[in-house]
Write a sequence for this structure.
DNA sequence: TAGATTGTTAATCGATTAACAATC
DNA sequence: TAGATTGTTAATCGATTAACAATC
């Protein structure tokens, strides 16, 4: 696997392939073509073949890809060949939902603990996962070699939480707080700002009709002016 | 605003600018340069100026952008000049968290109702927002002219839920279910698959050290071979 | 006027699409 | 062998970056 400077867009598609392969294997499908993967994922067959080819030749010409084999390969590429231990910082509504969601729906991830500074939450459990005091996070991270953290604290508390955990070994952060986080160079941040997702979607729902109206008018205007010229 | 075929990447950045402007206005800052916006957002100043220029000339050369004026313009562009009514389908952990989160943290969105088919949930409230039976969704959507829905049901139930709501006027969907949704042409879907976000992040946390190791070795190998050639 | 910063055009970079030879 | 589908190279498309004239 000569993985070198693979683009973010490619990496974001790999887990989609993984999820589809999981489903196929469960349905006992053992071969799949890029064309069929395209139908399941919404990405083009060419793109899928190209994505996979960055990492090696995993298919069989004329036949397609073996689902089990390809899944193992993709797992290795992403780094999911063993379950990844994570922590969730913030045990409010969102943190609780994320803890539950990942421990039940994400087969490749282990949520080892949640953290909060609210003493009313500390000591409780979320589906069996302990809520610890944020101050215990450094020790917990070090002792358990945690590299990945989910940030689900309010915007105002996010930077402080991130400083704390990056100082003790966290290298990758999934950030749900609506702020730009400053992190050391070797730490990766993915922002998953839910309000932004919803707001940018609204552009397409509300603005579209009006945009279409405008466009139609413009086209009409153009046509008219042309007609005018011809006449 | 001659908004025509603006790319998705541009549209995704607009809500970020909006959020920053909100914060600036709250701090009573009334002018901001693209350079300063860059520091707050992480995008380059050139990109910010270009993004805004697609829609008009909102700044003052030599001075920057007036925060209040720019905010109004961006709100209009996205379609957030009036609060947008939305519904959340699925009142489980994630649906509940999303309902709460958007009604408390998203100043431009109104969550009007949540829906579930679990009779134990129907009739209850999430921070004052009613949970209705999914079967009531069509009537509710029509009567209230709802255009935007958040899907937070299990993967297996998602397509059915989406069919139901698109049939009655929903034009934009924020989908948290890990499936590819089939929708009519004029309906927009944004996928916010939380497991995928986390998994693609892991590529950077776990694979990186090994990748760097490999890279170092390769560079070393190259150097050696060069030295060899020279000698 | 001098300094600063926008708005816009041109150049570069990167990602996607198309095409097809390789090969099962 | 014939048909199918991969893996790879070339062409296109789109987005970002750089540069700078316009102008407050």
């Amino acid at each position: 696997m000569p993985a070198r400077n693979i683009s973010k867009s490619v990496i974001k598609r790999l887990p989609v392939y993984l999820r589809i392969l999981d489903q196929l294997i469960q349905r006992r499908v053992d071969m799949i073509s890029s064309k069929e993967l395209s139908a399941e994922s919404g990405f083009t067959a060419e793109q899928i073949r190209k994505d996979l080819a960055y990492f090696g030749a995993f298919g069989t010409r004329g036949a397609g890809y073996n689902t089990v084999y390809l899944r193992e390969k993709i797992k290795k590429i992403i780094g999911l060949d063993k379950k990844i231990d994570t922590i969730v910082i913030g045990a409010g509504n969102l943190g609780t939902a994320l803890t539950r969601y990942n421990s039940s729906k994400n087969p490749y991830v282990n949520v080892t603990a949640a953290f909060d500074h609210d003493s009313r939450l500390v000591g409780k459990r979320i589906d069996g996962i302990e809520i610890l005091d944020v101050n215990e996070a450094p020790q917990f991270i070090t002792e358990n070699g945690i590299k990945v953290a989910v940030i689900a604290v309010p915007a105002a508390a996010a930077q402080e939480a991130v400083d704390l955990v990056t100082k003790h070994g966290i290298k990758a952060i999934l950030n749900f707080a609506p702020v730009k986080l400053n992190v050391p160079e070797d730490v990766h941040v993915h922002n998953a700002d839910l309000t932004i997702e919803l707001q940018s979607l609204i552009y397409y729902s509300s603005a579209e009709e009006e945009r279409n109206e405008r466009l139609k008018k413009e086209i009409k205007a153009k046509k008219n002016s042309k007609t005018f010229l011809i006449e």
About this structure: Residues 194-230 of chain B form the longest helix (37 residues). Helices of chain B lie at 8-26, 34-41, 45-53, 67-78, 93-105, 137-144, 155-166, 194-230.
